[in-house]
From TrEMBL:
Domain ABC transporter: 4-238
Name of the protein: Carnitine transport ATP-binding protein OpuCA
Coiled-coil annotated residue ranges, if any: none
Presence of the UniProt keyword Nucleotide-binding in the record: yes
GO cellular component: ATP-binding cassette (ABC) transporter complex
Domain of life: Bacteria
Quaternary assembly: The complex is composed of two ATP-binding proteins (OpuCA), two transmembrane proteins (OpuCB and OpuCD) and a solute-binding protein (OpuCC).
Keywords: ATP-binding, Nucleotide-binding, Transport
Enzyme class: translocase
EC number of this enzyme: 7.6.2.9
SUPFAM superfamilies in the cross-refs: MOP-like, P-loop containing nucleoside triphosphate hydrolases
Length: 351
């Protein structure tokens, strides 16, 4: 049985004509780390706040463990839901030491247990020697670990983190993704993390929930989201892709496109033969005698790879050029002819 369950949860804010969250169904297992991923305004924070009890759904049911925390008859207050929340700005008390900050949620504990628990969680987040400092005496990443320690201290059933990495610069962000995941795993926590950054979502979570306009688009492990996006929105939101329309062949394993046949790996239950395929740029590999041919119109260096825009030979209509990632060491001139193959594992049928 799932540990957290949203059942048909819908939220209309006052006077809104469209819901912020629309018939959301989601089940989360104990110990799972889930991210809610989607563009600004898609309902991620609203979902988190409804679970925490800070916002009331308009309809639906929410369960944590074997307890219904919200339905049309009851709403458990936030402090009774056993949730630890880490806010985007960490919300540490500036005038209190790190130790006192972490102690904050433990006011019902005995003094001796309190001290022991504070030291335990500070050690868990790698700040065992920092208890006597003030928040202003810590770096951004350290402050975030204090916020996480404070949330974990009372042994909550669930940890919620809203945009936990958005205040950090690129290098620290990468480290904190790793640290936060490790800490959550060590604490055996069940966690929901909100982000609009694909890399955050992919690196920290067991499963990713992609949302758009209040509606869940896909729930799957990171690799599956990337390799088999279910629709154009997901394909485009998580990384770059080429969306190309074509006709599904009777064998259901190939699609006829304007530049030739493309193999699609996964079985489909598509009813129409008019389909769209998503082909990832890194799934197109330059080759000496590749199956597909075109002329390089543009080459941009990103440092890790070069992004080529290739006008396909067979392309007599004003289609978008194909985006292909090529290795950085390869010298490619604008206007040169190239051929390439497509890796089927990075091709997906999308709706
Ligand atoms: N208190 C509120 N009153 C009215 N409308 C709200 C309120 N909070 C959010 N909304 C609206 O609900 C929708 C979803 O907002 P929400 O904050 O959940 O989005 P989000 O996915 O967290 O976005 P972001 O990535 O920008 O934080 C938006 O259209 C927003 O304008
Ligand atoms: Mg938000």
């Amino acid at each position: 049985m799932s540990f957290i369950q949203f059942q048909n949860v819908t939220k209309y804010y006052n006077r809104a004509v469209v819901p912020a969250v629309d018939h959301l169904n989601l089940e989360i297992s104990k110990g799972e780390i889930i991210t809610l991923l989607g563009p600004s305004g898609c309902g991620k924070t609203t979902t988190l706040r409804m679970l925490a009890g800070f916002e009331q759904p308009t309809a639906g049911e929410i369960r944590i463990g074997d307890e219904v925390v919200y339905d049309d008859r009851r709403s458990l207050p936030p402090e009774k839901r056993g949730i630890g929340m880490v806010f985007q700005d960490y919300a540490l008390f500036p005038h209190l030491t790190i130790e006192k900050n972490v102690m904050f949620g433990l006011n019902k504990w005995k003094a001796r247990d309190k001290k022991k628990r504070v030291q335990e969680v500070l050690e868990l987040v790698g700040l065992g020697d920092f208890g006597q400092r003030l928040p202003s005496e810590l770096s951004g990443g350290q402050q975030q670990r204090v916020a996480l320690a404070r949330a974990l201290a009372p042994n909550p059933k669930v940890i919620l983190m809203d945009e936990p990495f958005s205040n950090l610069d690129a290098g620290l962000r990468e480290k904190m993704r790793f640290d936060v995941t490790n800490i959550l795993r060590k604490a055996n926590a069940t966690a929901i993390i909100v982000t609009h950054d694909q890399k955050d979502a992919f690196t920290v979570s067991d499963r990713v929930v992609v949302m758009n306009e209040g509606v869940i688009q896909q729930i799957a492990a990171p690799k599956e989201i990337y390799r088999c996006p279910v629709n154009c929105f997901v394909a485009q939101f998580v990384g770059k892709t080429n969306l190309i329309s074509g006709t599904l062949c009777p064998d259901l394993k190939h699609v006829e496109t304007h530049f030739g046949r493309v193999c699609v790996p996964q079985q489909t239950n598509q009813e129409s033969e008019n389909v769209v395929v998503s082909i990832r740029p890194e799934g197109c590999r330059l080759a000496e005698y590749g199956r597909y041919a075109g002329i390089v119109e543009q080459a941009t260096y990103s440092g890790e790879y070069q992004e080529l825009h290739v006008r396909l030979q067979s392309d007599h209509t004003p289609n978008q050029p194909m985006v292909i990632y090529a290795p950085i060491e390869q010298d490619i001139e604008i206007g040169s002819a190239v051929t390439f193959n497509i890796t089927p594992e990075l091709v997906a049928l999308v709706n």
